[in-house]
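Section: protein folds

Sequence with per-residue tokens
===
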Amino acid sequence: MAGEIWNKRKNKDVYPQWLTINVVKDADGRLTNYIATISGITERKQIEDRLHSLTHYDTLTGLPNRELFNMRLKEAIQRTRQNNSGLALLFIDLDRFKTVNDSLGHNAGDELLQQAAAHVKQSVRESDLAARFGGDEFTVILENITDPQKTQIVAQKIIQALSLPINLRHHQVFISPSIGIAFYPSDAIEIEELIKNADRAMYTAKCEGRNTFKFYSPGMNATALERLTLETQLRLALAKNQFVLNYQPQIDLPSGRIVGVEALIRWNHPEFGPVPPDRFIPLLEETNLILPVGAWALRTGCRQLREWHRLGLYPLRLAVNISVRQYRLDHLVPLLDTIIGETQVDPSCLELEITESIMIENLEATLQIFEALHARRIRISIDDFGTGYSSLSYLQRLPIDALKIDRSFIQNIHTSASDMKITKAIISLAHSLGIKVIAEGIENAQHLGFLKDARCEEGQGYFIMKAMPAPSLTDRLLRRLPDRTGIHDSER
């Protein structure tokens, strides 16, 4: 007979020991004595505890891992059934984590995960379980939930905690969470289905702008299937030449002269027809297909710009959007060097549009990238200005050529006093720093008139001219028919 026992020291601390009891018999086989042997097993116990920890806890964050999470979720569901109560599952994904990991290295990525895990754990109750599901995904189990409002409060606390700037050694970074929420038993009875539905809700939150939460709804199943189908087709689109570039003119507002074009990726699917950019661009980002597709867009746009220059349209400028995945010094600059070398385009006529939210994520890396672009005479414009984190200090420090006022400010400038003031303030700020201003989303004569009066230099939008394929635009560029906006009504 043998087994584990617990003993107590004089100071009342308990500790494990191993007890073995052997039977002693006489020559006739009669039991005469018992011999107990007690041995220490502290070291073995420590090894067992360590193995248990490695099996059930994430070594990086210290949170329960997926295996322990699944066990705890099963137990929580059993308690919920017995208590006739409710349970909420939160599925959390860190937005833009891969960007930090790629630009600052895996050590910084690990440190970010540790801090994020601490924020998530601190945002929930002691009785709730926060776990690392894998990669940059976390899960939270909330028991005894009868009111969805309580779950919403927890989700908002997590969003608030993870939206604060995070210091990683010499860098300050910004991340945000996308959170999906599913309830037991209303959204699913089986564990796997509950996790899957919370995951679907998380992807919906990510697709609808990130830094938010979404409750699961049955319609998300169809959306998930549609997304999977779209992703499969998207992986084939580049090889099958289904992408095209359309170009939207940018005009000098005082004269109406076309000074540049913005290249916009369009997807013409043979079965689905034209696929809206807001459906496939986020998928390109998530699947990393934005890297080959972005390189194709840069190369195609530069070839077209070189052709326009050959036709006598120099110094027409080409603006190309740069995604968060492309925004790495070791990727972007060598790619530009290669494409400029291949196409022999004048780099001073190439303008890269970078959103201020991307720019501000890692200011030191941004400074290196901007200086490399500036040294090559490539122009830089900050896209969607006014919607992110930029401040006067950043604008003073970085070599920026232009600010693009986000269309959300332009749309309501005649009905919203605040939008009007913000637009005027951006223009005044840019001019004080010697930076050009481009307004996007000009959709009527009122927009155009206001921006001219405010001394905005350039603009683009449907009222000026819609985006169109290169052959159509080439004909219009060569005709140069000016009117009050620089473009005849027949050309819009």
About this structure: The chain has three domains: 2-48, 59-217, 238-491. Residues 290-313 form the longest helix (24 residues).
